[in-house]
Amino acid sequence: MDQHPFAKTLRQTMTDAEQLLWRHLRARRLNGQKFRRQQPIGPYIVDCVHFGARLIVEADGGQHNGSDRDSVRDAWLEQQGFKVMRFWNNDILRNPEGVLSSILEAPEQPAPPLPRPLSREGRGE
């Protein structure tokens, strides 16, 4: 299934918290690269991603409270070598500078190791 049309719809219907987060992130560069929003990665669409830092930032509302789907999704993204940071919409709206500070400090921490490619035997070749 092509995720690109749905990602475009999500970019056009962002929540207030996502819009505020994006306003702060779009002007920031880390390692000379920009954040991207509502980006398809594998079977998922992430709120904001910085490919150079392998960093994903998610804005979560009440629908994410204790969601098993989120933990499965995060585990898959982490297996792909990404660090996933989640912030509650309420925190983004009330303390955007604190959230932004946490995000911008994250790339200074060691990035998770990239997954090793499968051997030829593992791919059935």
Automatic annotation (TrEMBL):
Residues 104-125 are annotated as: Disordered. SUPFAM superfamilies: Restriction endonuclease-like (SSF52980). Residues 3-106 form the DUF559 domain. It comes from the Bacteria. This is DUF559 domain-containing protein. The lineage of its organism: Bacteria, Pseudomonadati, Pseudomonadota, Gammaproteobacteria, Chromatiales.
